[in-house]
Amino acid sequence: MKSIKIFGLLMLGIAILSSCKKFLETDTPSNFTQEVIFGTEADATKSVFSIYALFNQDAFTSRLSNTFIGNTDIEIGGVGAAPDNSRRDIWSLEATDANGDIRTVWNNAYTAINRANLCVEGLEQSKIAENPEMKQLLGESKALRALWYYWLINYWGDVPFNLKPTRGGDNFYQPRVGRDTILTTLINDLISIEPLMKPASQVTYGVERINREFVMGLISRLALCRGGYWLYPDMTSKRKSDYKEYYKIARDYSLKLMTTFDRSLTPRFQDIFDNQSKWKVVSNEDILFEVAFAPGFGDVAWNIGRTVDAGTHPYGSGSSYVGLSPALYYAYDTLDTRLESLAIFKYNSDLVQIPLGANGVSTGKWSRLLMPTASGSASAKGTGINWPIMRYTDVLLMFAESENELNEAPTAAGKAALRRVRARAFPKDATTVQTKVDNYINTVSASKETFFEAIVDERAFEFAGECIRRYDLIRWNNYGKKIVEAKRILAQMGENTYYNIGTYANLPGTVYYKNTADKKVIFYGGTFRRTPEIPPIKDVPSKGSNPDGWTAVGWLSVLYNKTLTRPADYVLNSWRGYKDETGLTPVRYILPLHSATISSSMGTLTNDGYGYGN
């Protein structure tokens, strides 16, 4: 268990940064000179910590990190009957320029970027700039800046771009800059600083701070974004002709990490996240960088993770704003141990496990019940559970993907990287390894296309609930295809299981459960097949009958509206803003700028294009 969390120190650095105006400002005037602030390693460290502090705002904790994402083929936020100018409109791809969450995230991002710019300038001009620790801090500042820009371009496309801190007298009204320019500049910036940084093993707080391994991975992530597809204002999706140059950078830097700082994967998949829930930082396994939250801060296991109802128990309450598709649940192989991380039950007010409906499946990667110190019956937010930004398996799969693209076919090295990810997910007996790992990889390696689709699937299985799927679908240019595919499968599951005929008729429309003496849930016949008979039902034919009987819960049948004989609202509304039932047109994932951002830009920013108009 970690004894010190970064955010316990972060606020010390905030007051020493300079201020600026408009949406690129930090709001905290300083009486200290830059020479003083960056004259010692201790003070410079506090300054850099103030960049991390922007992770501790609602703009990140309850928005950008998880609930700000649009609905994908695997992660689905609950959408209402009609748009309501909340995060639900972002989920359904219907956001407008009046959505307050858009303004909150935009402003927070540019505040973080300007703090990073201040630190980069101060560190580069410091009289002790050549000290190894100052180079490490410079790398952290540049990586944090790049990370925020990465998120900005994935939500707003071309955005204002500045690598210098803004001060009084500067021109605050900056136009958009092309994503290609932004990404190329950031990639080159990180490539120059990466060799001068320290690995996690040599950094205080380990993976709770930016480290050399993460920067290598971030270079690969940015490069795949630069080499991927983008949505343009005319609603076409294209990638640049030089895209393979960036796939090569992604391949080279993921390989550099794999050969220079190779890591052992955490043997049990769920332990990665259980460690986070237990406030335990492991800096030499899966996690490359995770946002650190002190107890009393952070929203993990409040708005994402296992649902725990409020009660007299000491753990407080939390739910999951972002669910997982029941189609994903059935896409896993039944022997895949990653299935354990999908939540199909919640804890009620008495901490009894109660099944969720199929439209309530969510991630169970994090649980407030595992916190080493229960936060109290009235608690909700502020769990102190860290949030993962990048894991080593992401790097392995980026390597496999880029190798496949560059060589126009899967290579032995790419297949080996995919194998490492998949092998961890399955039991280690020889038969299972042969059939579910080796034979599987041989089959999907038949062509470049089949191997790519295997990567698409593996990233879904590996990162479900970690809210990075949206970024993958954008750069792959298959967002629309995957939405239509998800809707079709869900609609078919609901109808088939309701009428007991069709492709998915063998799956349960209804499940039957009861609780063991230790409050755990057990299912009659499991959840992966329809039971041929109905078990004895509790309280049937009258209350008190069959006290040891089973309770029925609607499962896949909830995906069908029997009254209107059509798919349920869950299926029809989740991607309501995307109208093309063929999946051929691009998804409008680009968000509008908030009206207040436009008005304060003095005419330099508009919502032209992407179907928004002014």
UniProtKB/TrEMBL annotation:
<protein>
    <submittedName>
        <fullName>RagB/SusD family nutrient uptake outer membrane protein</fullName>
    </submittedName>
</protein>
<dbReference type="Pfam" id="PF14322">
    <property type="entry name" value="SusD-like_3"/>
</dbReference>
<keyword id="KW-0472">Membrane</keyword>
<feature type="domain" description="RagB/SusD">
    <location>
        <begin position="359"/>
        <end position="494"/>
    </location>
</feature>
<dbReference type="Pfam" id="PF07980">
    <property type="entry name" value="SusD_RagB"/>
</dbReference>
<dbReference type="InterPro" id="IPR012944">
    <property type="entry name" value="SusD_RagB_dom"/>
</dbReference>
<comment type="similarity">
    <text>Belongs to the SusD family.</text>
</comment>
<feature type="domain" description="SusD-like N-terminal">
    <location>
        <begin position="96"/>
        <end position="189"/>
    </location>
</feature>
<dbReference type="GO" id="GO:0009279">
    <property type="term" value="C:cell outer membrane"/>
</dbReference>
<keyword id="KW-0998">Cell outer membrane</keyword>
<dbReference type="InterPro" id="IPR033985">
    <property type="entry name" value="SusD-like_N"/>
</dbReference>
<dbReference type="InterPro" id="IPR011990">
    <property type="entry name" value="TPR-like_helical_dom_sf"/>
</dbReference>
<keyword id="KW-0732">Signal</keyword>
